[in-house]
């Protein structure tokens, strides 16, 4: 691994190898990499137009597995690079968090884009907690922006907490869904309707087009019930990532959401995200410390057995674990 100064130079010179090495560095959970990562990020953050001031358009893209996120990103990304943008694609994949395994063949769904010199695609960090993956992703975003990627797309599968996490790191959160009507609409979690800035019914092609339009109308109706008056009214459009239909229009909606925020609103939103991110970093670190605490490790199995057998109620078990943690860290 080159030293931090040459990494910074390489990133600013937009060299892919430097970008990849820097992202590997910030993803690393090894203690000895942490200091270098911090130095690198500090250096990048000291440049004007970084962080909260970054001109980059940050978009989160979520939806159930198979909804067509990667195919859509391929279509949108190639349009954007053709228009002179530099596009970075990151992924937050909770299945890789669970299994510690590698990601789906994302690059195969993005064949053209991964061969595009103005695009950079990075799969999800392979393992770790959601908090750890979120930290890696936010930091990878800073590296990409320093390498002049002016659009950053973050793909995440719409399960569990990952959408909320991704919504907390982007300017605009895009939710892709499939044609559903009536009762099926219930399947879309209410929480999603609260955090989505733009919604699209995907795979609106062939004989599914009419169905998709009807679903979009119904979804727009459901949204009106959830979102308050005077707030941004999230548009619902139809799109086909595979056949490249409505992709331009959808991107316009994303930019409209950005305009709605305005420069000040955007800076305020990003600053607020930084604050929330700060606390999530602290919680994640505390969680790690708890897991690694010698006191906790010593009694963990015993407490586990006692809870499983019904001998020890959960609150008492929690007290014992916390006491074991505190005892091992009398100075804290
Ligand atoms: N008809 C149609 N099929 C599509 C469209 N977009 C994607 N597909 C198909 O749907 C399948 C899943 O597409 P992906 O782009 O991999 O979906 P994804 O949401 O990224 O999936 P995960 O990453 O596994 O969550 C593939 O077989 C695609 O060819 C579309 O706009 N229309
Ligand atoms: Mg995908």
Largest sheet, strands/sense/barrel: 7 strands, parallel
Rg result: 22 Å
Topology as a string of helices (H) and strands (E): HHHEHEHHHEHEHEHEHEHHH
Query: What is the typical, i.e. mean, pLDDT?
Result: 89
Note the overall shape.
Answer: globular
Main β-sheet, spatial strand arrangement: 3-2-4-1-5-6-7
Helical content, roughly?
55-70%
Low-confidence stretches: 100-104
- Computed structural class: alpha/beta
Verbal overview:
This protein is 56% helix and 11% strand. The relative contact order is 0.11. It has 14 helices and 7 strands. The protein has helices spanning 4-12, 16-27, 31-45, 69-82, 94-99, 106-109, 111-114, 130-146, 162-167, 190-195, 209-226, 247-292, 294-308, 314-328, and strands at residues 57-63, 87-92, 119-122, 151-157, 172-177, 198-201, 236-238. The chain has a 7-stranded parallel β-sheet, sandwiched between helices. Helix 1 crosses helix 3 and helix 13 (294-308) runs antiparallel to helix 14 (314-328). Mean pLDDT is 89; it is low at 100-104. The protein starts with a helix and ends with a helix. It is of the alpha/beta class. The chain binds guanosine-5'-triphosphate and magnesium ion. The site of magnesium ion has 6 residues, from helix 4 and helix 6.
């Amino acid at each position: 691994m080159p030293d931090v100064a040459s990494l910074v130079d390489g990133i600013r010179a937009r060299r892919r190898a430097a970008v990849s090495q820097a992202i590997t560095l910030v993803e690393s959970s090894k203690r000895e990499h942490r200091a270098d990562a911090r130095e690198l990020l500090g250096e990048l953050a000291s440049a004007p137009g970084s962080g909260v001031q970054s001109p980059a358009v940050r978009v989160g893209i979520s939806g159930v597995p198979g909804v067509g996120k990667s195919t859509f990103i391929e279509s949108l990304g190639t349009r954007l690079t053709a228009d002179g943008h530099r596009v970075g694609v990151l992924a937050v994949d909770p299945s890789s968090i669970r299994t510690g395994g590698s990601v789906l063949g994302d690059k195969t769904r993005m064949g053209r884009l991964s061969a595009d010199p103005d695009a950079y695609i990075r799969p999800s960090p392979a393992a770790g907690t959601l908090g750890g993956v979120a930290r890696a992703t936010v930091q990878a975003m800073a590296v990409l922006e320093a390498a002049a990627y002016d659009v950053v797309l973050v793909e995440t599968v719409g399960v569990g907490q990952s959408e909320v996490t991704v919504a907390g790191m982007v300017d605009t959160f895009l939710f892709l869904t499939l044609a559903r009507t009536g009762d099926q609409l219930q399947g879309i979690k209410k929480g999603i309707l609260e955090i989505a800035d733009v919604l699209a019914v995907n795979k609106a092609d062939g004989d599914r087009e009419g169905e998709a339009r009807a679903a979009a109308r119904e979804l727009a109706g459901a949204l009106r019930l959830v979102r308050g008056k005077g707030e941004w009214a999230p548009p619902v459009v139809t799109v086909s990532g595979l056949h490249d239909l409505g992709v331009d229009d959808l991107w316009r909606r994303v930019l409209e959401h950005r305009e709605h925020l305005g420069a000040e609103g955007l800076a305020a939103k990003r600053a607020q995200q930084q604050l929330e991110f700060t606390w999530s970093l602290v919680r994640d670190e505390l969680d790690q410390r708890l897991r690694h605490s010698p006191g906790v490790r010593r009694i963990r199995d015993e407490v586990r057995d006692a809870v499983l057998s019904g001998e020890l109620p959960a609150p008492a078990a929690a007290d014992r674990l916390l006491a074991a943690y505190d005892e091992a860290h009398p100075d804290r």
